[in-house]
Amino acid sequence: MAVVTGETTSSDTRKRRTLTQRDARLGLWLMSPTLLVVLGIVIFPLLWSILISFQRLRLIEIGRADFFKPLTLANYERVLTSSNFWTSLITTFVYTFGSVVLSIGLGVLVAMAVRQPFRGRTLVRAAYLLPYVAPVVAVTFIWRTMLNPQFGIINEIGQSWLGWDEPIAFLSQAQGTWEVLGLDIPVPTALLTTIAFEGWRYFPFAFLFLMARLAAMSGEPEEAALVDGATPWQSFRFIVLPQLMPIIALLAVLRTIWTFNEFDDIFLLTGGAAGTGVASIQIYNYLTVQRNVGAAAAQSVIMSLILIGLLAIYLLILRRRGERV
Amino acid sequence: MSTQTIVTPPSQVAAPPQQRAPAGTRHRVQSRVFGIGRWVVIAAFLIATLVPFYYMLLLSVKPIEALLRDPSSMIVSPSEFTLQTYVDVLAPVASGGQGFGRFLANSAVVALASVALALLIGIPGAYAIARLPFIGRKQVSGVFLAAYLFPAILMAIPLFVGFTRIGLRGSLVGLIVVYTAQTVPVTIYMLRNYFETVPEAIEEAGLMDGLSRIGVLRKISLRLAMPSIMSTGLFVFMIAWNEFLFALLFLVDRRERWTVSLGLSQLSGSVEVPTTVLMAGSVVLTLPIIIMFFATERLLTGGLTAGAEKG
Questions:
Q1: What distance in Å separates residue A138's CA from the closest CA in chain B?
Q2: Distance CA B310, CA A41 (A)
Q3: What is the pLDDT of residues A283-306, one digit of tens each?
């Protein structure tokens, strides 16, 4: 306060400049706790992780871990030559692609269904968000119980109403067969179940974003198209969907990042067994089962690089599309 | 871009005028299909989202024998109804329970402390990014976002190593530190938007009246942003309450320090604890979040509709 009264005597421009300078200094001060925490707990560990990936480090020796251990490529060699790496990579891709497409697709479907106001819409909307806000440990436990082959409700319904011969082990069967028109089609049961779970858990996220966009959209182009004789499908396909595209693209990027790095959901549903061993499960196993910290770090780094590459391609495609539209 | 897309499509739609008559019947058929389909979708998704939670509640008030006797029953008869499952799950291990009472206390401490710290650190940061022209202001958000490209487990490895060395690993404090660091960027992102909507003229008026910047932040901006600070805090609470991976890595061998999430995941792996008791545990884990969510939902939609009424 004393400083402010002192300033009033100096000229107007000078006062403004010093105020700006003082603001800038204050800004850094206000930012410093954030910077400290993020640098210390996020950035520094990330860099350290990259360093560890080039060092030999077992779990029992972490008490003696230091920055100056000799560097080696052994971890990368070990990870890349492991046959599990390629299997887990393919699983991760299938899982990510399936989950992202399913969750966004369902999100679009539901957002369109509740677009027109009706009684109780607020409650319905809140109900749709439940799978997303509920704790992951609770919802995976509910799913595991519902899908349980001994007393789960799904297998009970399937056997008594849908004519299943025997219960399906949704979460522990790697490969099942579907009989379609006399053909036996092999299906990766557990992987499909986890993808279905992702669709169920994350469609609300897409729904939330799409609802906001739909609410902000002008109804006029659609009314004009209606007058011109457009069918509801045409007006969705050519008027609504193009306007949703930027949001869908953003959702696809966000969901890809998060699903690619996803650990909790699969770990809690299947433990990574039965053909659902995605990369993050593999990393966890390196860390806790094989107790090889270096290899765990190496695979994390590799996965991050793949994700960055994937996002670069995504953005490139989006930019090209953006230019053409 | 959106204006361009609005302009082009109707011409495509209206291009073949000779099809207008058949399009009329097609229009009617489609309208009817969409009209019915819409309700089918709404109902199907209500079932898909609500039934699992109903199933959780249902199993939590049944004895395990009743579930095994008739697994397909979707109701609980008055004679079977029991709250013993809740007693079993909440009671301390010493008196034959599963110790969820303790886990609840741990979760509450961790989540509340994370909220307090995230807000304490995030509010000044968000204000600085929204208002103050410091060096690197533009780059800061980008750096935060980039950090989220990496899997959590990549950060977990060095934190595991580092916290083991300084003795923080098996403690709730270690978990609070990690949750705070993970939620500060989200806090800043959410609050920055609100601080930016506070008209600068109001703040300048405060400065003219002799308030310092800190005074403006405390007496004007904070008060105006109070509802958004509340919802940001609740959001952080949800993240901290629901978190699983770091709790697993840091606390798995210390049962007395387990959070509810960790406790449920650990006990559901064993066969000794009846499923119905664990379902009571799930209810205990889920209920605070759902109550909180419905409280904020109203707060948030209230804010949204207020904006919509203004046009």
A1: 5
A2: 43
A3: 888 888 888 888 888 998 898 889
Residues A128 and A105: their CA atoms lie apart, in Å, by 15
Let me know: does B121 contact A32? Beta carbons within 8 Å: no
Task: Quote the domain boundaries for residue B249.
Answer: 91-273
Give residue A245's domain range: 81-324
Q: Is B210 found in the same domain as B67? A: no
Q: Cβ separation of B6 and A239 shorter than 8 Å?
A: yes
Domain at A237, CATH number: 1.10.3720.10
Interface test with B, best of A3, A38, A79 (most B CBs within 10 A): A38
Environment class of residue A106 by beta-carbon count within 10 Å: exposed (0-12), middle (13-18) or buried (19+)? Answer: buried
Per-residue pLDDT of chain B (311 residues; tens, 9 = 90+): 344 444 444 444 444 444 444 556 777 888 888 888 889 999 999 999 999 999 999 888 888 887 788 777 778 878 888 888 888 878 787 777 788 888 999 999 999 999 999 999 989 888 888 878 777 777 777 777 777 767 788 888 888 888 888 888 888 888 999 999 888 888 888 888 778 777 778 778 888 887 787 787 777 778 777 878 888 888 889 889 999 999 998 888 888 889 999 989 888 877 778 888 889 889 999 999 988 888 776 655 444 334 333 33
Q: Are residues B152 and B197 in the same domain?
A: yes
Verify whether the Cβ–Cβ distance A31 to B134 is below 8 Å.
Answer: yes
- Domain membership flag for residue B154: yes
Cβ contacts (< 8 Å) between A37 and chain B: which residues?
Answer: 121, 180-181, 184
Amino acid in the structure at residue B97 = G
First to last CA, chain A: 56
- Distance between CA B153 and CA A282 in Å, rounded? 11
Identify all chain B residues contacting A218, using CB atoms and an 8 Å cutoff.
6
Same domain, B70 and B105: no
- CB-based contact (8 Å) between A320 and chain B? no
Residue B39 sits in the same domain as residue B111? no
In this structure, are B81 and B227 located in the same domain?
no
**Domain count of the fold of chain B:** 2
Q: Are A74 and A58 in contact (CB under 8 A)?
A: no
Q: How many domains does chain A have?
A: 1
Asked whether the ipTM of the predicted complex exceeds the cut of 0.90, the reply is: no
**Nearest CA distance, B112 vs chain A (angstrom):** 16
| Cβ count near B253 (within 10 Å) | 8
Is there a domain that residue B69 lies in?
yes
Nearest to A151 among B38, B71, B132 (CB): B71
DSSP B193-258: HHHHHS-HHHHHHHHHTT--HHHHIIIIIHHHTHHHHHHHHHHHHHHHHH--HHHHHHHTT-GGG-
Is there a single domain that holds both residue B79 and residue B130? no
